[in-house]
Amino acid sequence: MGNNILITGAAGYIGGSVLANFISRTSGPIKAAQISAAVRSEEQAQKLSKLGVNVIQVDLVDETAVKEAVLRNEIDIVVHTASAIDGRIPSHLIKALGQRRKVSGEETYFIHSSITTLFSEEGGWPYGQVRDTDTVFEKEKEIGGPHPVRQTNILVTEQAKAHGVTSFNIVVPHVYGRGSGEWRKLSVSIPAYVRTSMAHKIVYKFDKDGHPPAAHISDLIELYALLVEKILQKERIPSGEEGYYFAMAHRTPWWAAMDRIAQSLHARGLVAESKPSIWPSDKMAADYLGFPVLYVRAMGTSSGDLVPVNAYRLGWKPKWDEEQFLASIDDEVQAVLELDTVKATIFDLLTSADK
């Protein structure tokens, strides 16, 4: 089989960290692979080109451009981190991989990135506890509905099967820690709270606590790497309808985290009080944080009863736990003060629809 890997969102927090991890390897199957990085802008392309990888500047919403990029660069494996929301992008990539498979006669693979919030009551999950070894795909289809991430999950599995592409779905939790990529080094949730708190001189939390799944960025990236290694070694692992991988290392106690954020910012003189207040409304929370109003409450209060099985069966061994997460909050605040130079665009499609 071929071993040409394309990482989408390579200028982003997760994609950039995946790229940094892959190119830093000194041995193993990933070291022997050819790595390509997909970016949107010329500025991003110039920044990443210094890494010695094949940088592809491409509009992933342009189906013709995507097909040309995949075929011209002979891409066999796509690690898709660019968007869990816009179904057009994985659709274009999967169709292109299907064409690549016909041309090369070799298997092609698509690794999708979803989110764990979907599998909570607040995210529309009515079935209670869920293991990633359950019939997750069939249950997602039963739920249906307009949620763009769930729609994209279903699309990925169905289109991959239709085009002869082997698919996997890494279901991404709340992620924290400093990224190792060249462009965006900050996650989404905690930086948004820190940024908003500094702007308004007050830390807010929701009136309901949440304990969602979480993972440090370094642990999450090791899961992506482990999955790619298994693919390159031609190991038989769960894929397609059975290919969900819950990337849960521990849980995030949101109220405790908000307390730590308030204490850290207050100690720096950046907020007036050392304890959080309650958001007056979900609309205000969405406006201040820059999150989509339809999903902001689920993002801030959900927990879900997820049981990760597939990731650990691969051999995933996350190093960070809840205690270490809480102890790192001050560094999370400091990281925003040092590194908050690149705007997050993950919710642009949804927040524009709110307006």
From TrEMBL:
Domain NAD-dependent epimerase/dehydratase: 5-83
GO function terms (MF aspect): aldehyde dehydrogenase (NAD+) activity
PANTHER family, alphabetized: NAD(P)-BINDING DOMAIN-CONTAINING PROTEIN-RELATED, PROTEIN YEEZ
Source organism phylogeny: Eukaryota, Fungi, Dikarya, Ascomycota, Pezizomycotina
Matching InterPro entries: Epimerase_deHydtase, NAD(P)-bd_dom_sf, NAD(P)-dependent_oxidoreduct
GO CC terms in record: cytoplasm
Protein name from the UniProt record: NAD(P)-binding protein
Gene3D superfamilies referenced in this protein's UniProt entry, alphabetically: NAD(P)-binding Rossmann-like Domain
